């Protein structure tokens, strides 16, 4: 259940019988709202078929529901047919400037077209694309992104629009331009009796994204594709994207999302899914890992342990087991309440609990291996119907002796020192 009820929209369907169908939006005209989907975009050349297929398949394995590819040139649309035969996810062709690329992509069998009102404006050309999509039941996304919405060809119009944007209330004018252009563009679609549309209105500014989508959600009943454009590297782009998309989703706005980073697109998919899991908008696949933030009481090298646990369970556990990794026994039990499996550090050891029952007490170097074994055994138990996720709370009795609190930091410092010594020797 989302924090705010999802906004009902029309529904569009992307895909075919071979790759499967992904529905976006819903709730109007007798449709059931689809789960919010996660999209991403390939980073390589589309015309380099083997590399493009490999990237799409990697993104699919990471959990992408829909993948978009750029088709700037004819050789890119020419490659689509071959690509489509080798992937298992709906593919969207991202079209800018050349409406012919859209027609070629439709002909190649792509599952959706993305058009930009900022650079494909000719009504007759837009109509041709609409008719091509209509004949194959393909939806179209209209993306009025901030970066390309200002007029570029007509000098007078450009100066006027830029003048408005750089006036005192920059955000207000940008929103006005986005909404106006969207309305004008949508008119072409409505004239053709075409409603299989999703809308995006991206900006690099999180506040503009929130305002733009909120405004658009009040005016149109088409599903919304959320995103922050040019969000930057993963480290900062993540905050920017989560601030904007999280706010909108929590308010019930948004039907499909793309987080965009200047980085490997797998991170976009992973973070997009994590955002939806965090808001309970998607059923979690795989472990729900919680870990203490560490403090002066940790009794093992918790920071490395958490990273190792994350890597280990991500490939081996596919049930949403709640797993807690806690640095000490003092506050850990309270913080891990509700975990199915938990490990608490104590005196350079790991005490492992499965649904409230203590199952192991192992030295620090064996924690990882033992924890995985317990998670796998618990997963099997759940699969056999002998246990239920979230059934029992962790109930801990502190071990005696407790050990020296904070000894984990001595361990980390020792490792660092050893690393530094190794480096000196290696470089000399
Ligand atoms: S679990 Fe222990 S080490 Fe971790 S933050 Fe809480 S008190 Fe500190």
Protein architecture, described:
Helix content is 44%, strand content 17%. β14 and β15 form a beta hairpin. Mean pLDDT is 89; it is low at 421-428. It has two domains: 11-278, TIM Barrel (Alpha-Beta Barrel); 288-415, 2-Layer Sandwich (Sulfite Reductase Hemoprotein, domain 1), CATH 3.30.413.10. It is elongated. The protein is α/β, with parallel strands linked by helices. Iron/sulfur cluster is lined by residues 292-295, 297-298, 326-328, 330-332, 335.
CATH architectural group of the largest domain? Alpha-Beta Barrel
Number of strands: 15
SSE arrangement, N to C: EEEHEHEHEHEHHHEHEHEHEHEHEEEHH
Give me the number of helical elements.
14
Classification by helices and strands: alpha/beta
Give the distinct bound molecules: iron/sulfur cluster
What Rg do the Cα atoms give? 26 Å
What is the fold-level CATH name, i.e. the topology of the largest domain? TIM Barrel
- At the fourth level of CATH, the homologous superfamily of the largest domain is Dihydropteroate synthase-like
The residue fraction in helices comes out at 40-55%
Q: How many structurally independent domains?
A: 2
Unreliable segments of 5+ consecutive residues: 421-428
Q: Which strand order does the major sheet show? A: 8-7-6-5-4-3-10-9
Summarize the structure.
This protein has helices spanning 49-62, 74-85, 99-108, 123-135, 146-149, 155-165, 170-191, 206-219, 234-250, 265-278, 302-316, 332-335, 367-383, 407-427, and strands spanning 11-16, 20-25, 37-41, 66-70, 91-94, 112-115, 140-143, 197-200, 225-227, 256-258, 288-291, 322-326, 341-346, 349-354, 357-363. It is an alpha/beta fold and 428 residues long. The longest helix is centred in the middle third of the chain and has 22 residues, at 170-191.
